Amino acid sequence: MTMFRTVSGALMIYAGDARPVHFPFFDAAGNPQSLSGRSFIFAVRREILTQTIFEPIPMTLSADGFYVTAPITAQQATAIFEAGREYAIVYDVIETTAGGSTTRWTGRIATQPSTALPHDAPPRWIDLPVAELVAEGATVRVSERGAAGPGVEQRLKDLGEIPEADPALMRDKIREWGGEGGAPFAEEAQAQADRATEFADMSVGFAGVASEQAGNANAARAAAEAAKQAAEVARDAALSNGTLYSTITEGLAASSENQVFRVLKVNGKAIAIYRKVAGEAVYIDGFTSDDLVSPLVENIVISTTRPTGFGDAYGANMFDMSGGPDRRYPRAPGMQIGWAFITSQDGDTDLDGTYVRARGVKMGSGAVYDTGRTPFSVRDYYGATLIDMHGGPQGRALRTAGGFQFDGIYMGESSGDRFIVRDAYGAWRELAFIDQLPESGNSGGTFNDYAARDAINVAWSMAGRDEILPMVQPLERDTVYLLIGYGQSFDRGSAAYPSLTTGKPDYSDMYVYMLGDANRPAGQTTTTYDPLTSGDIKPLAAVAHINGVKQTNEQLEAIGPDTSVPAEGHMISAAYWFRQQCLAHFGVSEAPDMPFVVLQCGVGGQPLAALLKGADPEYYNRILSGMDQVIAHPNFAGKKFRVLLVDFSHGQADYAAGASGAHNSVALYAGGVQQLRGQLNGDIALRIPDQKFPPAWFICQATGPFVTDATDLHVANAQLRLCTDVPGFFWAQPDYPVVNVPSGHPDNNGQRWRGQYHAICWGDVLLRGRRPAIVRARSATWSATSNEVILDLIGSGPLEAGTPYEGFSAVSLTNLGLSARDSVGVIDLTDVRFVGAMTIAATLSRTPREAPVILGGTKLASNGYLGIMSRSRAVSAERYTVIPDAGQHPSAAVPELIDKPYPLHTWCAAFSLIAEEI
To answer: Cα–Cα distance between 531 and 298 in angstroms, integer?
Structure first.
């Protein structure tokens, strides 16, 4: 099977910028294919059309035959930019071998204004060694090809250090530089390599595609690779002098006075260098591996297109990249932070009028610091200092000994051997110097293994907190917004009666609507959206009805609790609470020019396959039918429409189907949901051609009694992967923490409680430009000698044991809902305990046959519940309500909840992952 892979993100095209774009192809084994004898063209079109903007570009085969190039001219780039200002633009790579026409790849194009390059410059490239960064989920794979370029021996000859470019002379020279004297050389060589790699990576970062801008970038990459090779050889030589000891005591015992020795730290992921002075170990320097350092910095990116910025010591967003005069925040177009910082260096001149001042700022591989120990500040639009590197009340930034903090992470002072991070409460925590990290195989040192790992987990959490979001449909005035719910019984509001939200809440305005006399169609399983009673546009409210027949509270009382009667759907509460956030965002008390219409279209008991377009019966058509009626409604004549979001609550039926279901694996289920989104995005484009951006998709993880153990929580894993790895999908909390009736479905309070969660998540994405808070497992390890399992988690704050509601009773889970299994069967976990803010340790009840799978929220271990949460101070807009004599479950009168705001703590996602043996 032939497949094509590309870097994640969009192809960046600048007006008037002639450039080549390279496309390699890989086979099923991941090896680059030879494309000799094959032909391709490069076509550009509007996303919703097949007609191209200009004649397709014939693609050129590279000299080595492993990639083809589309030479885009300056005029074509300008045409793409002009079209991209109004519409979503995509490109197609089409194979035309033997006269055929097969689309091999389609990708999005992001257009930018001119880079001031000459408009008549032809596209040029040099066929030099290249490397592709390929993003596949959470994995980035680098493949290289072409000539190796100049080696380290050539660089040493050019420097006059050796007479000839001979590897043997190179090795002799490096040995000569070994030992104590080699360490400074290694450090400097590594720094040079980092800087070279930074500039090469910076060109990749700005382009966002598999190739660089013209041939110069390839040459820069080759130079960077050469510098990196030199640094690695020099560093290895400096570190390889002498024995590597597992403890300081061993090193002291084997060393003479004033001799330098090295000690392995943190399970081989760091090395500390000491000198024996008067019989004591004196710390000299330290080196860390990427495994220890990169998690602290790799997710930190500052975007020029989305709201994100620098945080102060208290967690406030002080430097908002999306600001401007009206918000008194500086705007800094063209600035990239990740591996390079582009700004003024003299400390006096503003960069393009952006009011950014800097002096001597350096950002290296795992280090961010002020090289000159001089004040670094960021000014607002009026010139007032927002962030002062020397701290104080003016900027509220904590003094960090010359260091620079942003988005919750501070790395290094003048070397990569110091770790500092801000905790969940905004306070700074110094994690460790290399000499303080635990020695390999030893629990000594200032921090034990738990603390070192927990520090990295906290850093991971803080780094990803303000992750850049892909573009979704933004909010604007003078628009009718459709909010669509789809899925199965969780979306239907099954057994969610009596109705609680019978009218507009006091905190919202009146412009939130439904189609007909209920928030759902009259028929529970129809293939069209048939409004209850009439097709009027009515204020959004919860209405209990059975197949179109409204039910009074007296009738519901006679039916009894836990019957499948929809009423209080979660989107009612969510829409009103999100509406309040929108009003506050725009600074108004009401917005009649921005009405919301909620369409809940789910069908109970249906697997994902039955909800896709083309299924028989075609439940999918409920969405289109409802949309068409709203768009054509006379109340909205002449209005502009947008589909703002899709809230997808699903999973129970595919759990029940187990291994025999159509979507019975993580890949199949995730692929099916993406297929559904693609189908709906296409139909939205047909009905609303001027909607430039797709709606945001929010996913609620189906858990609790509905999970099964047959497929290792494949639905949960797929839903989690979509929300963490696939652009456009966002988390909306698992459903298990809230109260529910014996069948496992949330009751009326549970649905409104869920809605409050969803509203916060909607607001995070659509108003605040950030990913919703999520608690999830990052990785796990297993020791074959002690049978200890350590689970690394990521969260929005310190984690603790929580008590979710099973039915109407808070349940305490001694195992926190965690278990393990191997090929033999289930393995119980004992002594399950928190050993840090985001780290859990436990012991396997028996030795597994192979590396065990660690699971959270299985049927057998905890009936689908998890007892891991991050406490939140968020207060819900609604309160827990009990209505007597109205069919509500008798056990719903929970004393600790009645008449109080719903707790909104953040709960851990269900998961399964394979532990790494250590």
So the answer is: 50
